[in-house]
């Protein structure tokens, strides 16, 4: 399917929207102050070794120490002994690294929530057609290049560029690349790695040896294998930067770059702004009248399907089946749009027919086949839930654009006015027993104050009789619903 890329660029934020068939499929956001670090190479120092976890924490100069597992320490790096290079197996973390040791590491996962970045010593450098693997001595070919003839041709060409310093992986975009283009890519990557090695010697520990290019350049590099028909950019400076970048690395997209000069904001022209806002809502409406409820938690994401107003035309079983099939398309799109990763549990509406279950799974697999991120579906459980995973490489759009609600503190709900009223009454009783006061003044939100003086006025009057003291209520417009103060007078 043909796609368009919309690049909305400001000095502090870059947003890239991928439009397929006139519908927003992916949204990528990068803020300069919180720029992702996946792909960056650092000279770090091992701050702590954890034998029980077979891992180590590495200080690479960030706020949180990064995490390095023993399985991510590869034989062709400098931190592994010659004996281990011969055995090619994961050894005890205590034998692989030591506290205080300097390491050259690469980030494979951005910090997520309370977790630090995930590291590897298996350094790779990507370019337009190739991925350079320092220390390796072989050539790999992308599995998406299906033609054996082309695979063998490419492998034979690229093997000429391998030496004792490193090997290559041939990317999908290289399927129709010429020998000249492959040679240019290989030479570029070797020069880049030489620069990294020079910096390794010159730079101090906790330094960045290599930084991945910005969001716009990364996506143009990665999306080039798709059927991109147009790339609209609303910043002249970024447009000029991308013209230079594409002419050198992705010439196929050079003529597809267009500077947007419209009167309306770029995202408004394609209704992208509204789509982004809808991607933050729990409820997703289906065209049939059914809907999805999507809840993202620390441990997993759950998706619940409901028929809603959809009553169908034949019988209940057909209605349920049709709703579930429609939901598979919406789920696949929402996973991409929201960039939801990790464990995902889908609660389809219960189906009595095994044939219907199989067809729903087939529909889900087909819908997810368009996803560039790796997914794995485990099928229906005994409870009728579908378990699946989606590789998590960056923060979800909700985590980028939102934070925990200061009112509910992440619970997703707030106490009712009635509940807060009873808390106020209990607090007055507690304070009266602990301290000697002549009267009390309660400061509360307008809704709570109105209820204490209205529907719960009898409860307040009974409390005044019980403690033998006056209680005055004052509304505080700036207080949230759960907030109140009991002041002694």
Automatic annotation (TrEMBL):
Residues 39-128 form the S1 motif domain. One of its GO terms (biological process) is tRNA processing. Keywords: Cytoplasm, Endonuclease, Hydrolase, Magnesium, Metal-binding, Nuclease, RNA-binding, rRNA processing, rRNA-binding, tRNA processing, tRNA-binding. The keyword Hydrolase applies. It is found in: Cytoplasm. GO terms for cellular component: cytoplasm. This is Ribonuclease G. GO terms for molecular function: endonuclease activity; hydrolase activity; metal ion binding; RNA nuclease activity; rRNA binding; tRNA binding. Its cofactor is Mg(2+). Belongs to the RNase E/G family. RNase G subfamily. Its main location: cytoplasm. Pfam families: RNase_E_G, RNase_E_G_Thio, S1.
